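User: Can you help me understand a structure? I only have the sequence.
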Amino acid sequence: MSSTKVLLVDDEVAFTDTLSKRLTKRGLNVLTAASGPEALKTLEEDALIDVVILDVKMPEMDGIETLKEIKKMRPLVEVIMLTGHATVDSAIEGMKLGALDYLMKPCDTDVLMSKVQEAKAKKTRQEDKIAEARALNIALRRGD
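Assistant: Let's start by predicting it. Here is the structure, written out as tokens:
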């Protein structure tokens, strides 16, 4: 299985650098973005991103708005919301919009790695189901 590719989105550069290094040491392929628009541009350019770790509080375009756009663009990409300023309302809204989970900063790296692995597994299962449905559809059209 190929390495999991993660997009880490946070406007706090020092936090992003530190977390990126920690996740890379654990075998993840980590890309970073400092804003919602930058994250969307990266997702447009790289079709192999599996999981987005997304800060909620960002200037210009917050995490909830970014999540909505991610799910429109790439519905199978799993998103883990991450924030130091959580409210129950934003957590609920994020989950309703399709986020896999919602973690508080600073989060334990082991917990985050577990969530990333869960997200990658979920995405892979969804992709496998789509591939199976396509294969079945082709077989039915051919009369197999």
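Now, to help you interpret it: The radius of gyration is 16 Å. The first strand starts at residue 5 and ends at 9. Let me know which part you'd like to focus on.
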